[in-house]
């Protein structure tokens, strides 16, 4: 695969100077167009050691307008990163629309190193590469341009470079000697590299293999390649996947699901006042203990509350927060996104709030807005909300894989009950702020919302993150069911009977072991 | 001081119910007005242990609209927090305009605990309290409302509460047993508390002492007090300090400074090409080593570049970034703030980017925009830019105190040289993006900018963060002077001859020791 990168191409000083200035002008112009078209660009800089990746990055910083260009390297993981799913650190670095981010190694670095060091086998590597493919596809479908450079050297050239560097005052090799062994295992590294590139060389995000022997050729080629990629992306419309990702799943379609799910709920179920009081006191006491245990075990908890308007989300959440020490939880009501949030993928704002180890985070509405309100109101187009099912499943799998305990509640009420509550809100002064004209409008779309909910539950009720459907007409019943479900789930997970912890040893995973590990 | 909190006030169940609903309505209404008037509110919840601070916070979360209300506790410092100045974690929690943040203990927690545990004496505590006063004044002058609650119990009541809690399944005392000793040293704690309250009980940010024995009285009083504070803040104009803080300093006023500073620069100084090449190679090699040493010693570096338009900031910065491993630095060009940034104090966006330990961050333009462009163009009013001098000095002191190595460069060129460079930019294709109509407009305000620069340098050239004025007419000379200054400063600091490291042991400081500590 790398033969083409070992033919010894080079560029003379004169040629370089000649081409450089025009290239700079064109790059700056392309960057301006990126800003106008609001296309985010991710540039991955990877390759063999001593290929001069750092020099290339400095060159890009020199040629491009540094406003709207940021560079990120991924080493010494902070504990805030370690306490969250591995991809959190990458989400932190994703560029806003119209800007560029240059990533050293990016999401490729850890898997390559781990496989190279024999910490995982090819199968584990492939599984991780599959995640990478999904991740990049998601970014691209959201409008991003992903440009991946692999810098290569022949074994002879690499050895020569390393010798030079070890003499060079400015080299970092004295600082990071352990890296030197890359050269001693050139063959293995090339094997890993080839496998990684083969599995992740998507039509929508191809790898560009660059011969790095001659630095002038290397830098000019990078500049030209990036320029072409940007121009192509600006001219051609968004590359579309053949079929919406969600269709890959073999799930009941919404029409049939419509009959099978919400309608099965027995909304007539109630709970007597005394039963309620007793159960509430008992469950809140238990929940308080469980939350502290989770804190001690460093397990984070993610609770998602969705439901019909006036479905009783707030009341249920307050019965939880009243029991949990206020230092352990944070409730996040999902309102309109800020412009920084609008300038990123819709999941970005939720990655932002992922709790640290041992913390509980409660979402009052969530990322499911994508397949509910955004679908029904047409804020997201067909392709967008359809592929969201897979994006969400992948997101939640990463949470669970990291050891987070994830619960999702849907609170359902009947149309009549909703009407009663709307009227009650309209009449109670301190409830009026909760009821808006929008609520009344949404109510008219009851059937569309019902279909959306059914499909959502069908497509996103995974074994690692099942939905709990809650009969909400009787508030006491609903609140107790929520608390009961939460306590049961926490008890099982914290007793170490958690089947998903095994998932957490993946190629590329540098994160802490969950569950007090 | 606490006598008034020990008279045994209480509220009956009926009274409570009666008053609660109206209070909720009024609070929600006040919250709505906060949003409209874009006033940020910081609520500090502090006091003796077992006073029920967590219950109060839960109550506020129940009574207020949880959209625009966030709660933060400050324990288990993350290493990302430990690697930055202590106040970074507080800046992270400051509410956006129109929103509320409820802080457990906030910036009071650590100093109180440290003094209480005898880790520092009263003098050290007072020094820290002085910082708190400045910090709160800064927030308030920026438009914030700061409401501070101190919950108190008599010694008898506290002991009774603790006994109850130790029986209660839901208490956190089993989890945090070490806290129990608070009760054993009630007198000492009251001494510390009284001192803290006395020193920080500002007219603009008073403490509200709340008797916490009866939970209904406690919660109602908190609700009513908060309501009154919000209403008062909305009605009355921004509380103004008698004199602009900056005037407290005894510094030359701008008119006299105007003659003494920039005009002393000998802009005719130049460097021959050969000298330049040799010096450049030598200094870049040294800088590369020094940056790695700083990384090993976990010292972060903050470089600030300001200067006349076309003063050569970009070129000087590139000579630095070309020498430093791209994984070690980040260059931040300061462009227009995002709306999230606009919704906070102007320093917030800079606190956001403070580097982790061992990293170098380079600001191309900086927080000094407040006293330069914002002053001259009138984006900041007189009081705003005047008090900015002190705010900036305090900010920089915290950086240095934490062990960061801070350098500030002003690149000066003559009016004629600037004109030449403007014309060159207009003619060179890949430089055109750098020259805008605004640059030409600013040029006409040369005298105003000059006055602003002079006063800036005079008022913010502190011993811990002096300005380096660079003669910029000859680019080679300027670049070498910058590199030379940087290398000298780093060498001194990294050889442990850094006089400011002693500052870092302060009451309340939980941060890591800088310089490889």
Major sheet of chain A: order of its strands? Answer: 2-3-1-4-5
| Proportion of beta-strand residues of chain A | 5-15%
The chain-level mean pLDDT of chain A equals 87
Q: Which range best describes the helical content of chain A: under 10%, 10-25%, 25-40%, 40-55%, 55-70% or over 70%?
A: 40-55%
Low-pLDDT ranges of chain A: 242-252, 254-258, 511-517
Number of DSSP E strands of chain A: 10
CATH superfamily of the largest domain in chain A: P-loop containing nucleotide triphosphate hydrolases
CATH domain fold name of the largest domain in chain A: Rossmann fold
Number of helices of chain A: 21
Structural class of chain A: alpha/beta
Largest sheet of chain A: 5 strands, parallel
The CATH class label of the largest domain in chain A is: Alpha Beta
* C-alpha-based Rg of chain A, rounded: 26 Å
Shape of chain A: elongated
Domain Polyphosphate kinase-2-related (chains A, B): 11-233, 271-491
GO molecular function, one term (chains A, B): polyphosphate:AMP phosphotransferase activity
GO biological process, one term (chains A, B): polyphosphate metabolic process
InterPro entries (chains A, B): P-loop_NTPase, PolyP_AMP_Tfrase, PPK2-related
Characterization of this structure:
Chains A, B: InterPro entries: P-loop_NTPase (IPR027417), PolyP_AMP_Tfrase (IPR022489), PPK2-related (IPR022488). The structure is a homodimer of 517-residue chains. With 517 residues, the first copy, chain A, is of the alpha/beta class. The first copy, chain A, is built from 21 helices and ten strands. In chain A, the strands form two sheets. A five-stranded parallel sheet of chain A has the order 2-3-1-4-5, sandwiched between helices. At the A-B interface, helix 1, helix 2, helix 12, helix 13 and strand 7 of A face helix 1, helix 2, helix 12, helix 13 and strand 7 of B.
